[in-house]
Design goal:
Elements: H1 2-9, E1 11-15, H2 21-29, E2 34-38, H3 41-49, E3 55-62, E4 66-67, H4 71-74, E5 81-89, E6 93-96, E7 107-111, H5 112-117, H6 119-125, E8 128-132, H7 135-145, E9 150-154, H8 156-162, E10 165-168, E11 178-185, E12 198-206, H9 212-222, E13 226-234, E14 242-249, H10 255-267, E15 268-278, H11 281-289
Parallel strand pairs: 1-2, 1-3, 7-8, 7-9
Antiparallel strand pairs: 3-4, 3-11, 5-11, 6-9, 6-10, 12-14, 12-15, 13-14
Site (Essential for prephenate dehydratase activity): 179
EC number: 4.2.1.51
Enzyme class: lyase
Length: 290
């Protein structure tokens, strides 16, 4: 039992097969931890609740594909807290079985997002794309089949795990291809307000009064708080019951944030903070490049 608990405490869960980009992100952030592949995002969250993993790595958006479907529905009800963020550069590799050449390929397998992110290469090669549940799963499948006419688009890590050859590296259309991940845990780990730039993620629903959303968000503008994300999605099976997912740069203990949240609270109900966490250094890099 002690060994199992020790292993779980040093494990981070992700959705996908071994070698997926989420697996790579886990290893990038926590190279000292074991990674636990899970079939679905729900399974990834459940692994943390069941104490089979201490952390969960969840992709939330990509610079090419946009937001990850259904994530915003899962986060508020996950029962977990966001404790960190990570930006992972996505490098797509064209993989083949040992000894295969590009000229032999007739089909290429991968996740729908990866296929869309490599459309120019796929079109130039004249191969047919085949959609799979995840990139690493596609790599595993072609490795098992051993057919030289079948290739996969995945991370280099998947090729190493499943013994595949790299036929071409960095085949993505956009060189800025980056996925943002959230790291989640059972307990909140709120950083010190004076410890550096922070991000606060929260969800809310506005009251049914005219201009409620405009008024609710006005406090962030008047108090100089930068809102980096605001997305709405339907809840409760109604076209009128919209919930909002928002992210702002700041810590709830800062005066400007306290005032902004006071105004938000006046015009909303069911507001909940999902996490307060350090801003990733990638944000500063992006700000400096713009």
């Amino acid at each position: 039992m002690a060994d199992a608990q020790t292993t779980a405490a040093n494990t981070i869960a992700f959705q996908g097969a071994p070698g997926a980009n989420s697996d790579l992100a886990c290893r990038s952030v926590h190279p000292d931890m074991n990674t636990l592949p899970c079939a679905t995002f729900e399974d990834t969250i459940a692994a943390v609740h069941a104490h089979r993993a201490r952390l969960a790595m969840i992709p939330i958006e990509n610079t090419v594909a946009g937001r990850v479907a259904d994530i915003h529905h899962l986060l508020p009800n996950s029962g977990l807290h966001i404790i960190a963020e990570h930006f992972q550069r996505i490098d797509h590799y064209l993989l083949g079985v040992p000894g295969a050449t590009i000229d032999e390929l007739t089909h290429v397998h991968s996740h729908v997002h990866a296929l869309n992110q490599c459309r120019r290469t796929i079109r130039a090669l004249g191969v047919s794309p085949v959609v799979h549940a995840d990139t690493a799963g596609a790599a595993e499948m072609i490795a098992q089949r051993g057919d030289k006419s079948q290739g996969a688009i995945s991370a280099k890590l998947a090729g190493e795990i499943y013994g595949l050859d790299v036929l071409r590296a960095n085949i993505e259309d956009a060189k800025h291809n980056t996925t943002r991940f959230l790291i989640m845990a059972r307990e909140a780990q709120i950083p010190d307000a004076a410890g550096g730039p922070a991000v606060t993620s929260f969800v809310f629903r506005v009251k049914s009064v005219p201009a409620a959303l405009y008024k609710a968000l006005g406090g962030f503008a008047t108090n100089g708080v930068n809102m980096t994300k605001l997305e709405s999605y339907l809840v409760g099976g109604s076209f009128q019951a919209a919930q909002f997912y928002a992210e702002v740069e700041g810590h709830p203990e800062e005066k400007s944030m306290r005032l902004a949240f006071e105004e938000l609270d006046f015009f909303t109900h069911e507001m909940a903070i999902l996490g307060v966490y350090p801003a990733a250094p990638f944000r500063e890099t992006q700000n400096n490049s713009n």
